[in-house]
Design brief:
The complex is a heterodimer of chains A (about 260) and B (about 280). Chain A is α/β, with parallel strands linked by helices and about 260 residues long. Chain A contains eight helices and eleven strands. Chain A has two domains: about 170 residues, Rossmann fold (3-Layer(aba) Sandwich), CATH 3.40.50; about 70 residues, no CATH class. A six-stranded mixed beta sheet of chain A has the order 5-6-7-3-8-9, sandwiched between helices. A three-stranded antiparallel beta sheet of chain A has the order 2-1-4, with helices on one face. Chain A has a two-stranded antiparallel ribbon with strand order 10-11. In chain A, a hairpin with a 1-residue loop joins strand 8 and strand 9. In chain A, helix 4 crosses helix 5. The longest helix of chain A is centred in the middle third of the chain and has 14 residues. The two termini of chain A are about 20 Å apart. Chain B has about 280 residues and is mainly α. Chain B has a single domain, classed as ABC transporter involved in vitamin B12 uptake, BtuC (Orthogonal Bundle). Helices cover about 85% and strands about 0% of the residues of chain B. Classes of the chains: A alpha/beta (about 260), B mainly alpha (about 280). Chains A and B meet through helix 2 and helix 3 of A and helix 7, helix 8 and helix 9 of B.
Amino acid sequence: MEPIVEIRNASAGYNDDIVLHNISLTVFEKDYIGVIGPNGGGKTTLVRLILGLLQPLQGEIIYHRQLSGSLTGYLPQVSNTDKSFPITVTEVVLSGLMSEKGASGRLTRADRERAAEIMQMMGIYHLRHKSIGVLSGGQMQRAFLGRAIIAQPRLLILDEPNTFVDNKFEHDLYELLSRLNENMAILMVSHDVGTITTYVKTIACVNRNLHYHPSNIITQSQLAAYNCPIQLITHGEVPHTVLGVHNHNHHHHDHD
Amino acid sequence: MIELFSYEFFRNALWAALLASITCGVTGSYIVARRMVFISGGITHTSFGGIGIAYYLGLNPILGAAVFSVLSAIGIEYISGKTNVREDSAIGILWSLGMAVGIIFVFLTPGYAPNLMSYLFGSILTVGRTDLWLMLALAAVVVFFFVYYYNTILFIAFDEEYARAHRLPVMVFKYIIMSMIALTIVLNIRVVGIILVISFLTIPQATANLFTQNLKKMMIYSVLLGVAGSLAGIYISHYLDIPSGATIIFAFVVMFGIAKLVLNLKIRRVVKQEILTRENY
């Protein structure tokens, strides 16, 4: 497996407040990592660090870029965008190509066709001329997810994708992510630990430190050992000390 | 009405209104979309400090205003990006400081003191050839830049963080656009005055925004609305013999009011029709 991004002994934070202490994490191709941890523990800081929006105070981050193609696609938290900004759904999806296009921002007919395909895949093609302000939470998330994947990134990063969305979309989203995972690595931050562990392959517990857990089963005592105090949500016949069922293959559909 | 065109001052005023509408329509749409109206107000008033100092030193006031406004524009962008000072507080400080510096230096200037009113409301009927050429050059630069880099400007304005995560030269674009906004403000202060610049930058855009949620269309509509409103203002001010700048503002606001009213009536009619159709079935 080829590494995509390597974080080596990095510390990061804002001004005097160091949020992440000496963390290391390597994201490989086909990875599907669920990032969990308490609020304020540094989950979003980790995302910003990987995206290069925040420089590490110590340590280093190595990006394994390829000659062509985009390295990261990013689905930010919904609350961070200006919902009344005059921009259409098509333009939002096309803006995901900016890493390829650079400063000139020239778009070709092929780019617009690609955007149309992505919107069809997301089920928002009929909304293509609407401004994003009139969309529902789920529709908006689809548009932003379209932006994140249009450039076919090697690593897709999602920050709390399941906030403000309905159950139907949440289910569709996880199905879609599992399909996308065949071509790109995924790193997903979530507060809904119970749900994500059924879909992700491995878990990263982030609470000022980072503990990588190479499985999608995690127990209460392991969480305690990782210093990762989070509410366990039990569901189905899962024993209440165990999170998730070790069956992450069940949603892998056969393609081709 | 036609005989007015035989006067050069009147033709110049019309050209000035057209060029002001173009530069302000384009940059103003960006300002409204990015919610930077207060920032532009800050730049506009800060530039008055430059006018005052230039007067005192016997330099061209527009040059003084240009230096002050570009520096304050870049300063505000820098402050909001890098330091802990709250942006709106910083703007408030620059805003009042600029006006204070301007008034003190205008007062200290020996001899004839320029009329403060002419800087607040401008004098579109006294625009000269040089002003027009400068405005034309700026309009050409602004239109070219926004047309050529439209997608990049839109993407950065919509989600700066996403653009930075994808290594777009975000700061370069922001500084260039801020400088263009500053120069737009300066050249138009001469023509329409400090107060009117802000209305040129916001009222046609807010009116356009009622009808479209697309930045490109908003820019085009704003230019057209700016032309219509300023022409109406110039004519009315001529016939009623009242100050042109204030009349143009009035025309803009009336246009906004009518647009809002028409839109509300339309929405009400649609709702009424929906209720009727529901009752029928």
